[in-house]
Design brief:
By secondary structure, the protein is of the alpha+beta class. It has 4 domains: 3-64, Arc Repressor Mutant, subunit A (Orthogonal Bundle); 78-126; 140-225, SH3 type barrels, CATH 2.30.30; 240-319, Alpha-Beta Plaits, CATH 3.30.70. The protein has 9 helices and 11 strands. The strands form 3 sheets. The chain has a 5-stranded antiparallel β-sheet with strand order 6-5-4-3-7. Strands 9-10-8-11 form a 4-stranded antiparallel β-sheet. It has a two-stranded antiparallel ribbon with strand order 1-2. Strand 9 and strand 10 (273-279) form a beta hairpin. It is elongated, with a radius of gyration of 28 Å.
Amino acid sequence: MGKNHIERILYIDGLLREDVFPSRKMIADRFEVSIKTVERDLDYMRDRMAAPIEYNRNRHGFYYAEDGFYLPALFLSEGDAFALFLAHHFGSVWRGMPFNKSADKAWDQIAALFPKEVAIPPSIFGTHVLVIDQSVPASAEYWHSLLQAAITRRKSRIEYRAPGYDECVSRTIHPYRLVYHREAWYVVAYDEYRKDVRNYALSRIHSVVNSDSRFSVPKDFDLEQYLDPQFGIFHGSESFNVRLRMESWMADIVGEHVPEHGRTFVTGDDGMIEIGFETNQSEELKHWVLQWGENIEVIEPESLRYALLEVGRFYSKTYFLKK
């Protein structure tokens, strides 16, 4: 859809909303295009924009059959459009998904509206900016099937290979949500075999068949009970308090990874900083703390201190160098 096409649609929309009852010829003459081109514009508005356009034989022109209808128009400044380009360029979350081609097409349409010269031309991203995409590959077909199952609340039969296993198992699931976390897609679903809500990585799903059997989402279902967007999407436990102790320079770094909501900072008499927050991801939190090594001390929970102690014992036993 080029710039002229957009201009014609906006022009037609304005005439229809003002009850001018424009004819095909009126529009064609205004833009010096053919009657067929105008007919394609009208069909596009009906089919792609759900515009209730009808023809009035008495007035010999078109009109909106629904009062108050407005096109889902998007008016962007150059800066807005450039910001949208940034979002599209860095949106690796959609790479390999069904919407990827549509997103590229939509960007091409918006890019056509840019003036010939902009302050920061989009072409710089090919030469001056590098995007390292480490997204875990997933089937777009399965993603779309699970999304449809979640929308229509239909049960899905999946073949799933758990980590460390060679064979797949069959599971009947009730897809509740699709979740993108740390460059990988997951489906949060009720597992009829486990009789519990589980998280399945789309990269390990080998087939999806949606059935006609329907399910209902429990009224008390709360997604936050099963994941913590900051730390992980593993099957969560009850939320627990966490307190970490570190030097002030390290607090700045760690603070960037801990959401501000519910977070506390306390400075001790010795200048050390304690950060407090809540999570329900005990296993993920353990791995997250380990990456900071000796720079962080866990104050609570006690269970995490013991878990880290066991890791230390393993390291000591495995890497101890005998003379």
